[in-house]
Amino acid sequence: MADITFNSPALVILLGPPGAGKGTHAPSLGSHLLIPHISTGDLFRQNICNRTTIGIKAKGFMDYGRLVPDEIVLEMLFARLKQEDCKRGAVLDGVPRTLIQARAIDREFSKTHKLNVILLTLDESLLVERICGRVACKQCGRPYHRKYDPPKNELCACGGTLVQRVDDSEEVLKQRLEIYRRQTEPLIEYYKPILQEIDGNQPKQEVFRNIIKNFTLEPIHA
Ligand code: AP5
Ligand code: MG
Q1: Does the beta carbon of 64 lie inside 6 Å of ligand 1?
Q2: Catalytic site includes residue 22
Q3: Which of 41, 55, 70, 81 could pair with 48 in a Cys bridge, judged by C-beta atoms 3.0 to 4.6 Å apart?
Q4: Which of 45, 88, 97, 142 is catalytic?
Q5: Which CATH code, of 3.10.310.40, 3.40.630.30, 3.40.50.300, 3.40.50.10490, is assigned to 4-221?
Q6: Residues 9-38: tens digit of each pLDDT
Q7: pTM for this one?
Q8: pLDDT tens digit string along 65-114?
């Protein structure tokens, strides 16, 4: 059980393969813990949409299911974490994804922040259905699923348009999964002492209930 004390900031890392539910649960977990959620995938997609230098660099990697180089990820992440709304920490969705990223986060934050890691697992048989049935909001990034979490009137709750991600094809998914196994799975061993494993195959509400069981909230002292 991890105590989240608001007087000592926390970083909650959501680890797991594509489709495990990181993006589904990160916003609600952030709201529950009163800290923002940060998805490096969503930040890159916003940068691509706005045609920034980061976006132009990232697109060539993301479209083919490859990882964006560590230095680009870390610079963008640390800049985001320095913003005022992150002073009590954040829920991290999709980062770190390599040992280099994990060690850099440790160096920068382990003295000031409490680190918690949640691993969402997913059976391989569910992967393709989860990813190929997904549509996500172009504006806020919230994921929906055509079968399991259908959007109302083809729009996001925020009013944004829903689109299918360029990398959500069976072909690119194979590459994303292979990269997850090779570069991200070693983080399971790295974080072993602080890692909580949650079965991501269960219905969404049950997964969320099991995630929040890992946290006790202490009151905020001004
Ligand atoms: P990113 O956007 O992070 O993609 P990902 O890791 O491949 O993960 P996904 O978003 O596909 O899965 P998810 O776990 O969020 O699933 P979701 O909750 O949506 O990264 C994209 C790319 O950006 C990377 O490939 C890389 O190029 C780059 N990148 C990002 N971060 C990087 C980093 N740190 N380093 C280097 N490169 C980086 O759920 C999927 C679907 O299932 C949804 O439709 C959802 O509604 C549904 N669903 C969820 N839970 C349930 C449930 N319990 N039951 C039924 N359906 C469910
Ligand atoms: Mg996601």
Answers
A1: no
A2: yes
A3: 55
A4: 97
A5: 3.40.50.300
A6: 999 999 999 999 999 999 999 999 999 999
A7: 0.95
A8: 999 999 999 999 999 999 999 999 999 999 999 999 999 999 999 999 99
